[in-house]
Amino acid sequence: MPHDPSRQTEILRAELKQAVMTAFCDALHQSQLSPLKVMGLTAEALGAVYREVAEAHRLDTDCPCGWHPKVEADIETLRAALERAARPAPMTDLLMVQAAGRA
Hints:
Radius of gyration: 18 Å
Largest sheet: none
């Protein structure tokens, strides 16, 4: 089967979403915190992961992945991705509208 980067990206996106959702639900059920507070903690955890990976790449100039962190631009990219994913899908996109029932 040929290498399909877009399919791999979609699979990885779904796997990461499921992992984050599982961690979020576990944290929500184990605490008395509001969903927004737990989401904030989740965002902080992602920020900490970014910082740790970026720091490792600043120290390791020979990493084969070739990524060179640019903190301000990277944070803007992450912020935009969060905003894009968090906003409700436009109702004009019927493929994204959740069915209310079955006929």
